Amino acid sequence: MRIALDAMGGDNGPTPNVKGAIAALQELPDIEVVLVGDVPLLEQHVAEERFSDKRLTFEQSDGFVEMHEKPAETLRSKPNSSIAVCWKMMAARSVDALVSAGNTGAVVASGLRTRLFLKGVKRPGIAVTLPTLKGRSILLDVGANPAARPEHLYQYGVMGMIYAKEILGIANPSIGLMNIGSEEGKGNELYRDTHTLLSKSRLQGRYVGNVEGRGLYQGQADVLICEGFVGNVVLKVSEGMADFLFKAITPAVVGALDQERDVAKRAFQQIGRQYQYSEQGGAPLLGIDGACVICHGSSDARAIQNAIKSSTKLMNRDINGQITTDLSEEMVAAEIG
After folding, report:
1. CATH number of the domain at 1-121+287-332, please?
2. What is the DSSP letter of 118?
3. Where do the structural domains in the chain lie, given as residue ranges?
4. Digit-coded pLDDT (tens) for 176-212
């Protein structure tokens, strides 16, 4: 499997990308990684790591999209930026997957420009895995499609169900619609129409109905779907709340008795690992003909390494093949194709 890595993307420049790529190559014998970016600079970083392996190659780009830049405008002014080159390589089938910790909007926008969608997919969506009181749940979409239609959310339910089954190991994933209330008729027109669609589709046996925000962490559904604007707000609030709680509770832990402190410390570490970007690696952009994993901008080398591993899982579990098959059948059954 050949993976293109946007080696210029992220808050910390090439260093964590290069280190993460090397770690992944050392762990996974059946992959190749292409570092995309300023080749002389990347070669220097690799030389500093004293790493030499023919499975690590380079591809030149012309600049990169910085985190503060507007995606659409920048992609027009930088058509050969590092992330754009990654997408062009995947469209040309010279790589099987791409990984980037760069500007998320640019990653998505560049992917949409290639129209590299799976057959039957109308809009790709970003899926994140979040811890709950019952295990883990998928939230989809968290930013790729802020102007969704009911059929898009329906497809997210299908794609999220497959992802939860194959990656999280949930045998029969349940699906919920993130909404402002659990009762019938709640939400705006998009959510009311989506609720009706899901209730009448072949997903109805898995669909648990509307789920309020509090239900996400209570584990009321294995897959929660929403449009990208809502999903991104939920994700960012969750990240901020987790950071606040850890910082607010830390003084109490420090002041506890030794035995209590050790128990609390282990509990915090266990919960923290579920939130850490380095452990999660990144979030897949589902619905793409290939594999795309989007990392947090502050990703360290371990996060990049795990993101590369995640991209191999997406391909090895044939997530895309299942999405194509299930969507074509579901779309006909739901009469929205």
Report:
1. 3.40.718.10
2. P
3. 1-121+287-332
4. 999 999 988 899 999 999 999 999 998 989 999 999 9
